[in-house]
Design a protein that fits this description.
The chain has about 325 residues and is α+β, with helices and mostly antiparallel strands. Helices cover about 40% and strands about 20% of the residues.
């Protein structure tokens, strides 16, 4: 079903191999919080660096879905399978939209290229404020690719579509629905309606401005009202002087639920220290902390990027 209704997501998942790596850019201070507490925080999209983080996708979807000429072929294809699924899926999306705007919580990572293993990605280092030490925590991809409902949190690549690329994606969906009409006609109506809803949900919440394509972000998305989970812990915290709600996820495996590889010794592959005049002592401290958490061979896993610290900005 994923290959039919979310073709780009399906292809991006296929492109991730066992040797691939994701990377989480964060502050050195937050890395120590993750290591000490053995947990990660999912943050509300309204409190991310771009407080209108998901509005780009919501607006693109709104513009596209409100032009009958844009949706006509897709609607016709779905109606030929099971009548009513488009309208019911769209109705559910619109009913949940206020909640998606306010209750979407994400953990963000990015695809890591092998040639970034020593230096990280300059464009992402530049996102840190002056005086803040950034680190890139390179992690194994296996936990992100597991098909499990244990967390009720779901990984998806972020898209950076132009308006034309957005429309092209749904044209591909239309063609694949028609190519799989016999199969889809036998699917339970509720299940097919839910698939239409999820197609719209992820198109809205996992899309960003085309100018940010260099980020190559993946996000793990959860919503405590839509997908209640006993594994997340609601917590109120003050981050950068802003009081906010976060959802804490303990990094504990649960093999019976096909949830493995999220404990620190298995998860962390490498730590890259961003531009800093204190890279030496920072490295020593991170190596010691990884050893304390039983991460194997920590000395070989922590490197300084060596990128010089700019005395002042360009211009």
């Amino acid at each position: 079903m994923l290959s039919i209704f979310m073709p780009t997501t399906f292809e991006r998942r296929l492109a991730i191999k066992g040797y691939s790596r994701f990377v989480h850019y964060t502050t050195a201070e937050n890395l120590f919080h993750i290591l000490d507490k053995e947990e990660v925080w999912f943050r509300n999209t309204r409190c991310m660096n771009d407080h209108r983080d998901i509005e780009n996708g919501i607006m693109q979807l709104h513009q596209w879905s409100n032009i009958p000429e844009s949706t006509a072929s897709l609607v016709s294809a779905l109606e030929s399978c099971i009548p009513g699924v488009w309208q019911e899926g769209l109705k559910k999306y619109r009913q949940w939209l206020p909640n998606l705007r306010t209750q979407s919580y994400v953990l963000s990572v990015a695809e890591q290229d092998p040639d970034e293993n020593e230096t990280g990605r300059l464009s992402l280092w530049r996102a840190f404020e002056k005086g803040v030490v950034g680190v890139a925590v390179v992690v194994n991809v296996a936990p992100f690719m597991q098909m499990t409902d244990a967390l009720m949190a779901y990984p998806s690549p972020v898209t950076y579509w132009t308006r034309q690329q957005f429309e092209d994606e749904f044209n591909v969906v239309t063609h694949r629905i028609l190519a799989n009409k016999d199969f889809l006609s036998q699917v339970n109506k509720f299940a097919l309606t839910e698939m239409v809803f999820l197609m719209l949900l992820f198109a809205a919440t996992c899309s960003k401005h085309p100018g940010l394509h260099h980020e190559r972000e993946w996000r793990v998305l959860t919503n405590p009202l839509l997908w209640p989970s006993t594994r997340f812990i609601e917590h109120q915290a003050v981050i950068d002087s802003v009081p906010q709600t976060v959802y804490k996820l303990p990094l504990k495996n649960s093999p019976d639920d096909n949830l493995t590889g999220i404990e620190l010794p298995e998860l962390i592959d490498r730590v890259i220290i961003g531009p800093s005049i204190h890279a030496g002592p920072i490295r020593d401290a991170i190596v010691a902390k990884l050893a304390e958490k039983n991460v194997p061979d920590p000395g070989s896993k922590v490197v300084a990027s060596g990128i010089p610290v700019r005395a002042k900005g360009m211009g």
